[in-house]
Design a protein that fits this description.
Elements: H1 4-27, H2 35-50, H3 57-74
Length: about 80
């Protein structure tokens, strides 16, 4: 089982990769949207959104920033 910090690092990488793949999709380089990465991100955001009390202050702050970044890209 991964630690919270490892999950947040993976979430950050996935959000960066999602942005890159959506740029490629809208630019015509991909035929389908990157739904697999989006699904992984949604899973982590939901999991840690429900267990906010288990995280330290710094981890909650980082998670909040990452989830806001994801929400911005999702729109």
């Amino acid at each position: 089982m991964a630690t919270i910090d490892e999950d947040l690092a993976a979430l950050e990488r996935d959000i960066r990769q999602l942005k890159i793949e959506y740029d490629m999709y809208f630019g015509g380089g991909r035929k389908r949207p990157p739904t697999e990465i989006e699904w992984r991100i949604e899973l982590v955001v939901k999991r840690y959104g429900e267990r906010g009390g288990d995280m330290k202050f710094g981890q909650r702050f980082r998670f909040s920033n990452l989830s806001q970044t994801y929400a911005k890209y999702k729109d």
